[in-house]
Structures are given as structure tokens and as C-alpha cells.
Amino acid sequence: MASPQALYEGKAKIIYTTDNAQVLRAYYKDDATAFNAQKRGNIAGKGEVNCTMSSYLFQKLEAAGIATHWHAQPSPREMLVRAVKIVPLEVVVRNIAAGSLCQQTGIPLGTVLEKPLVEFYYKDDALGDPLLTPGRIQLLAAATPEQVEELTQLSLSINQHLGQFFRECGITLVDFKLEYGVDAEGKLLLADEISPDTCRLWDDSESDPERRVMDKDRFRKDLGQVEEAYQRVLERVLAHC
Ligand code: UDP
């Protein structure tokens, strides 16, 4: 049996090989970064929350017919995933204006968008993950126009499923980021994670704009009670099982 090799260490996860070349093991860390890693910290228990919540939501999406990289969750911080080549695009879906959309357009925080907005960012830390245009996506050969259309439709469908699910948990899905990969057979799979690190989640039972925040904005904006918020999201998600 070959010993596992660390293939890649990112800001929140370490990816290891397994005995099966088609399967990798993702280890979820408690390390937290924000503002393109200019702010660094630790959120105790985050690895377990993000791994468990992502595992649950990937299985939920699979049941709804959306192909994901999820394979198994052998321990609270470890996820077995299908090996994929990651598409170098971060797909952001927005239902309500927040974060960079407000900063870059002046649209007030909390504005409900008439229809979901899908945006593509270039997955490149050194460049600060810039917002792309369709022309720039072609220029960079990051995806074909057909893949962009497929990613858009898939992301909108995921938004519908997740939005409905979180509504049932008493949580509003404000926006979120998705990553995709292509497996050895050329099949497009939803990859990475779906967690309070990658989604903005507002508690429907709170009207106060700071108290309602249940996601990484608590860390980004030093709102306190970060660990508690992550645990509360997981409890609500699992209570819904
Ligand atoms: N997001 C993410 N990783 C990134 C950038 C954004 O998971 O590298 C998520 C973020 O948590 C939010 C959504 O994508 O749910 C939109 O983020 P935005 O563009 O507003 O950027 P931010 O405010 O994080 O700078």
C-alpha cells in the first residue's frame, strides 16, 4: 500500500493521494483567511463543520441529479473525492447584494436582486482572483463559451436547490462561490466545498444586520462569535436531515 502524498495544501484544505488514483482525500483545516490571505486566523472546529456540511449538501445535490466530486466522509474532517482537474474559474451566484458587488457597484447591502446574478472570477491567488468578462475567459482559454453556458445553468440550478434547502432551515442564501472540475472521463463535476466559508448565510430569525450573519463575514469583519455561528449553521443543516 503506497503511503499517502500531500498533493496540494490550500488555505483551508490539504489534498492527499489515496491507493485509488481516481480518488483523493481532502483534509479540512481550521485555518481561516480573508481578503486574499491578507487576514489570517483560526476558527476552532471549522474543518469539521465545513467538511460535514459540504458532505451533506453534496449528497443532497447528487440526489437532485447534480454530479459532484463527493465520494465519502471517512471522518469529521476528511472527505474522499473523485480526482478532477479543477476549472480555473470561481463561479459566484448572488441573490442579495453583499461584499464586492456592493463595493464595486454602489448597490446597497441587502438589496434583493431581480434575478440571480452569475459571475466568473479567475482562480489565481497571485492576481487576487479578478472578475472576468466573457472575452477575458476566452482570451485566457479558461473555459469554452459552451462550458461557460453549462456552468451558468448548473450554478443557477444549484442556487435553486440550495436556496430552497436553506429557506427550510430558516436561513437566507445571500450569495456563494462554486468550483468545478473535470474527471478522467471528461465529465464536469461540482467540486471544492459548500460551507459558511464559501456562502453568505443570514439567519431569518434575526433582523439586526450584524447578528443575522452566520458565515465568514463574522471573521472578515471581526463581528465575534465566529465559531458559534459556524456551529449553528451545521446544527440547522443536520436538524433538517
Ligand atoms: N467567496 C469565496 N472565496 C473567494 C471569494 C468569494 O468563497 O475567494 C464567496 C464569499 O464567501 C461570498 C461570495 O463568494 O459568499 C461572493 O464574494 P464577494 O465577491 O462578495 O467577495 P468578498 O466580499 O468575499 O471579497
Under CATH, the topology of the largest domain can be stated as: D-amino Acid Aminotransferase, Chain A, domain 1
CATH secondary-structure class of the largest domain = Alpha Beta
Strand content: 25-35%
The hetero compounds bound to this protein are: uridine-5'-diphosphate
Shape: globular
Number of domains: 2
Name the structural class: alpha+beta
CATH superfamily of the largest domain: ATP-grasp fold, B domain
Q: Which CATH architecture of the largest domain is right?
A: 2-Layer Sandwich
User: What share of residues is helical?
Assistant: 25-40%
Biggest beta-sheet profile: 6 strands, antiparallel
Mean pLDDT: 97
Sketch the topology as an H/E string, one letter per element: EEEEEHEEEEHEHHEEEHH
Point out poorly predicted stretches: none
| Beta-strand segment tally | 13
- DSSP helical segment count: 6
Distance between the termini: 36 Å
Cα gyration radius (Å): 17 Å
Keywords:
241 residues; alpha+beta; Phosphorylase Kinase, domain 1; D-amino Acid Aminotransferase, Chain A, domain 1; six-stranded antiparallel sheet; 13 strands; 30% helix; globular; binds uridine-5'-diphosphate
Report on this structure.
- The protein has 241 residues and is an alpha+beta fold.
- It folds into 2 domains: 6-82, Phosphorylase Kinase, domain 1 (2-Layer Sandwich), CATH 3.30.200.20; 85-224, ATP-grasp fold, B domain (D-amino Acid Aminotransferase, Chain A, domain 1, 2-Layer Sandwich).
- The protein contains 6 helices and 13 strands.
- The strands form 3 sheets. Strands 8, 9, 10, 11, 12 and 13 form a 6-stranded antiparallel β-sheet that branches. Strands 1-2-3-7-6 form a 5-stranded antiparallel β-sheet, covered by helices on one side.
- The chain is globular.
- The chain starts with 5 loop residues before the first strand and ends with a helix.
- The model has no long low-confidence stretch (mean pLDDT 97).
- The site of uridine-5'-diphosphate (UDP) has 14 residues, from α2, β11 and β13.
